[in-house]
Specification:
single chain; 0% strand; 2 helices; 57 residues; mainly alpha; extended
Length: 57
């Protein structure tokens, strides 16, 4: 069976979660949620060369 899905990879540096900006983000109220949203946005941007784009109608 053929797999027609595309796969994208997000490579993080080993110390990504030790970065000062991520530590600050996680220390905020609901910071874990915000850091998760940030990772999801990074993943979504992979299809467009690192840019976030709205779908075209």
């Amino acid at each position: 069976m053929s797999d027609n899905r595309k796969y994208y990879y997000l490579k993080l540096k080993e110390n990504y979660f030790d970065d000062d900006s991520i530590i600050l983000l996680k220390s905020m109220q609901d910071g874990i949620l915000y850091s998760n949203i940030l990772l999801m946005l990074c993943l979504k941007s992979l299809k467009h060369g690192g840019r976030l784009q709205l779908p075209q109608p």
